[in-house]
Specification:
By secondary structure, the protein is of the alpha+beta class. It folds into 2 domains: about 5-25 and about 200-220; about 30-195, Jelly Rolls (Sandwich). About 20% of the residues lie in helices and about 40% in strands. A 6-stranded antiparallel β-sheet has the order 1-12-3-8-9-10, with no helix packed on it. A 6-stranded antiparallel β-sheet has the order 2-11-4-5-6-7, with no helix packed on it.
């Protein structure tokens, strides 16, 4: 490529990138991070109490779960329920069993549709070095990845507004503690994705590439 063409190409990219990076910001995004103490899982479901998030998360949201717990009971689990803000008995349950099997399941309870066993993996269902990601939108429903692959894909769940969560891990009150120590962190993000520059990035790239090709062809014809 001639020097004049290279300079022209760099000029186009330089003009495009700053405008893209500076003019867009997504003020609708809501972020929250919660570190759940290990001993919170040493209880049965009946003893768990929903804890409200700082704010409700509606429309489009994503929850990342990082499970670095040290299990103390082969039958113990780390289970989190995400409750709808408007319907008390509407929830999404994500469960992670103890090593070495590392069972994994997702169950959805929707009063209009009943109990939905979205997935259950009895072996290698989750991984210590990977995050569980649950992503939802009103139009696409909910999908869940276990860090290696998508295990729940676009299950329709109308108007689910994240309002609170609860955790537990024991089947019976007389069971040994499910968890000895460790950390269990959830990150939740919600907002209007249409205000996010990344949402439009493929369109900008396509337009920029087309413009660059057009300019290069024009330069070639003239030369």
């Amino acid at each position: 490529m001639k020097l004049s063409k290279l300079v022209l190409l760099i000029s186009i990219i330089a003009a495009f990138v700053p405008a893209y990076g500076q003019e867009f910001s997504n003020t609708s995004l809501v972020l929250q991070k919660i570190d759940i103490p290990a001993n919170e899982f040493n209880r049965v479901l009946d003893d768990s109490t929903p804890i409200p998030f700082d704010t409700a998360h509606a429309g489009n949201w994503q929850i990342n779960i990082e499970n670095d717990l040290l299990y103390g009971n082969p039958k113990g689990s780390a289970i989190i329920r995400i409750y709808d803000a408007n319907i008390a008995d509407k929830f999404i349950e994500i469960g992670m069993g103890s090593p070495p099997d590392r069972k994994f399941w997702v169950t959805i309870d929707d009063p209009e549709r009943g109990l939905i066993p979205a997935t259950r993996l009895d072996k290698d269902g989750w991984y210590e070095d990977s995050k569980i990601i649950a992503a939802y939108s009103d139009s696409q429903g909910i999908s869940v990845g276990n860090g290696k692959r998508i295990v729940v894909s676009n299950v329709i769940l109308d108007n689910f507004v994240v309002g609170s969560y609860a955790v537990y891990g024991m089947n019976e009150p007389t069971d040994p503690p499910a968890i000895n120590s460790g950390t269990f962190i959830i990150d939740i993000i919600s907002g209007d994705v249409s205000q996010n520059p990344i949402h439009y990035y493929p369109y900008y790239v396509t337009g920029a590439v087309g413009a660059i090709i057009g300019v290069l062809l024009l330069v070639k014809k003239r030369s």
